Amino acid sequence: MCWRREIGMLKAHIIKKRRDLQVDVALELEAGSAVGLFGASGAGKSTVLACIAGIEEPDDGFVQLNGLHLFPPSLPLHRRPLGYMTQEPGLFPHLSVSENIRFGISKSLAATAEQRQWIDTLRDRLQLAPLWHAPASLISGGQARRVALARMLARKPPLVLLDEPFAGLDRQLVRELIDDLIFWSRQIGFSMIAVDHQAEVLKRLCPEQAIVLEQGRIVQSGNWSQLYSEPATPLLESLLAPL
């Protein structure tokens, strides 16, 4: 399945009860834009992404993308027009790198010249040619993140969700992966919601807009200059303070 490249606005209101807090977050994302979700660990950032992706089901609220209702009712994962990348690459160890990237794409689509060319472009841009036929179980963690990125982009999703996909990687690889994501966002034109515990990462991925969560609620939104100059809470001020 390859989704249409037209991008619509995301509208969502996520209400989800956790053990120690209730997440209650409403957001809108304009076509082609990017927003960073920032806050301390446990603030509810990953819960918001998981509910949009369909990994978790909200207790209440709604999720709508380009007129398509993702919730309610809960739309199956494979029918959601989005890409979702987390700290865990989630590759199938018994499949090769090439097979992992093509996984879930119909045989009829995979056989088209356009799709083959797109896969080749991803392979070359992400420097995966030397690993193309290697089992996923034998590649390094950094290589696995590149494969996961290629698999996510293989269907040209209109919406990309990033839940700390760079955790545990060295700085050089993080810079390269961010550059790749920025490059592909311009090529494909996807919208993006990114979560990371490092403000510097989010500033590069989502330079124009940030939303700050504390205890499952939005406490501030705006551009990064506003957050740094007028942090809404003492906790945000401490998170933004230079190390």
Summary keywords:
alpha/beta; globular; 243 residues; 2 domains; disordered N terminus; Rossmann fold; six-stranded mixed beta sheet
Describe this entry's structure for a reader.
It contains nine helices and ten strands. By secondary structure, it is an alpha/beta fold. The chain has two domains: 156 residues, Rossmann fold (3-Layer(aba) Sandwich), CATH 3.40.50.300; 66 residues, no CATH class. Strands 6-7-8-3-9-10 form a six-stranded mixed beta sheet, with helices on both faces. It has a four-stranded antiparallel beta sheet with strand order 2-1-4-5, with helices on one face. Helix 5 runs parallel beside helix 6.
Short recap of the structure:
This protein is of the alpha/beta class and about 240 residues long. It has helices at about 45-55, 95-100, 105-110, 115-125, 140-155, 170-190, 200-205, 225-230, 235-240; strands at about 10-15, 20-30, 35-40, 60-65, 70, 85, 160-165, 190-195, 210-215, 215-220.
